[in-house]
Amino acid sequence: MDKNSATKTQASSVAITDYFKQQSARVEQWLERLLPASNKAPVTIHEAMRYSIFAGGKRLRPALVIATGEVFDADEQALLPTACALEMIHTYSLIHDDLPAMDNDDLRRGRPTNHKVYGEAMAILAGDALLTQAFITLANLEGVSAETKVRVSAEVAQAAGTVNALIGGQVLDIQNEGRPVTAEELDAIHRAKTGALIRCCVRVGAMIGGASESELQLLTEYAEKSGLAFQIADDVLDATATSEELGKTAGKDEASQKATYVALYGIESARQRAEQLCQEAIEAVQKIGRETAQLEAIARFIVERKH
Amino acid sequence: MDKNSATKTQASSVAITDYFKQQSARVEQWLERLLPASNKAPVTIHEAMRYSIFAGGKRLRPALVIATGEVFDADEQALLPTACALEMIHTYSLIHDDLPAMDNDDLRRGRPTNHKVYGEAMAILAGDALLTQAFITLANLEGVSAETKVRVSAEVAQAAGTVNALIGGQVLDIQNEGRPVTAEELDAIHRAKTGALIRCCVRVGAMIGGASESELQLLTEYAEKSGLAFQIADDVLDATATSEELGKTAGKDEASQKATYVALYGIESARQRAEQLCQEAIEAVQKIGRETAQLEAIARFIVERKH
């Protein structure tokens, strides 16, 4: 890497950090309005929902919805609630994944997990409630046609489901723990567990923006490649970063003999694979011929991030 | 009760039992198509979903959707999947309520509960998946406008949520266990826990059928009164029937000092209250001036049933 490209990487990385901060602030303002107030009865469930959704985090999924929608000048009234709905679904999946019966995690984003604070029963219900709230939110979108609302809702529900989708991925993840998996199996797990929702974020952003069918195809390619790169980078981080940097228990994958890209390819090859996918994602999105700098920067961020 | 009315009650009870059987058969045919096949990967989650949804049961909620829709000659292509979506949500809530962290029930409809068969992790995910599948189903309805799909989806999501709705009711139920509650508190718990979904069944049936605003109001009144009567009858059954009759552990409410109408009013007063609500529900629905015999019979069944 010559001096110029190093400077460029650093500059784009600063810019994307600012972009995430700006979009997080917008998303949190909307989440504040979209979730039942914490003084609304029953108070505890609303507190539990808010505890996890306002726990920080990168807000990568909402940023993808927004960055994609803004390529097509999408209406904020529809785009931001959709971004929030995806964050609700992501957060519900984290709450349930952390439960004692699942990954049994005590720490998430540097804080005690939902069930450590509110107990298991309330954590299960808070997850259920965030999933449900996502569909309340999508049914009440403004600024788009009923046809678009239905299309977005179908896309989100499908991505959150069992077939090549979020819940299915979690099932595979649980079932494969401690046993060797092939490269194809690992790709299938991650296409489902993290890929489906990331793909969905980009696609619903495009739908709300009114993208053409060919644009939607290119964006889908961008999203699928970025999603896989994201998971590989995640595996690399788990193997190389400290718990403090991650805000969650590091080295857990190896300890639990979880199937990861690092276990399969080693750290260096995994890194290279993530970088190649990132490059291909950027090339796909550039073919659209619109202003896609933020989407490109997000793809780069995905493989360069330190947490 | 004179001989005539006794005969009439018996006759209508036989008729409604047949009606439930007929509608159950239709609902199960549609559920078969609407749920991912059990040989579709990941197999286990689809088996777990099907284990609970095909566990029998009265199919009261789908029957309410269908009976209401058929008052307005609703299109089967939209009505039956909607009925199935409500049954998916009801089943998800039972799976999660039965979990060790919640009511810790081993028996449901005479069979081991989902987590006893598939383990806690899979039971949590099967519940999540049925909730999600309900919204996949609603987004893919045929035979109704996109506007109606959005309206139905909003109504269902709201009823499944936390504010005077399904999840909120479960929260109150957990929080109030073992402490005395007032009559008003008990009504609020049940309006949320069982009432919201029953109300929703009737309302979405009416929406798909294209009911007028005033018809929707009368049907809502019918549903709210029937829903409360249903819960009171449930409490009476828990106190008076055997586990064998119920297909679940009987007498559990008293053992766990759960707030019930029986604990509050005694068995006889609770029975009378249920009968009065049933009568008022029937009067409301008769004001519509259409053929509502099935809805009336369902209201009577709700208070007269033996399990």
Explain this structure to me?
- Two copies of one chain form a homodimer.
- Chain A has a single domain, classed as Farnesyl Diphosphate Synthase (Orthogonal Bundle).
- Chain A contains 15 helices and two strands.
- Chain A has helices spanning 3-34, 43-53, 60-71, 76-98, 114-118, 120-139, 146-160, 166-176, 183-209, 213-240, 243-246, 252-255, 261-265, 267-286, 293-304, and strands spanning 107-108, 111-112.
- A two-stranded antiparallel ribbon of chain A has the order 1-2.
- In chain A, helix 9 (183-209) packs across helix 10 (213-240).
- The two termini of chain A are 22 Å apart.
- Residues 1-9 of chain A have low confidence and may be disordered.
- At the A-B interface, helix 2, helix 6, helix 7 and helix 8 of A face helix 2, helix 6, helix 7 and helix 8 of B.
Secondary structure layout plus pairing:
The structure is a homodimer of 307-residue chains.
Chain A: H1 3-34, H2 43-53, H3 60-71, H4 76-98, E1 107-108, E2 111-112, H5 114-118, H6 120-139, H7 146-160, H8 166-176, H9 183-209, H10 213-240, H11 243-246, H12 252-255, H13 261-265, H14 267-286, H15 293-304
Helix pairs in contact in A: 1-3, 1-4, 1-15, 2-6, 3-4, 3-9, 4-6, 4-9, 7-9, 8-9, 9-10, 10-14, 10-15, 14-15
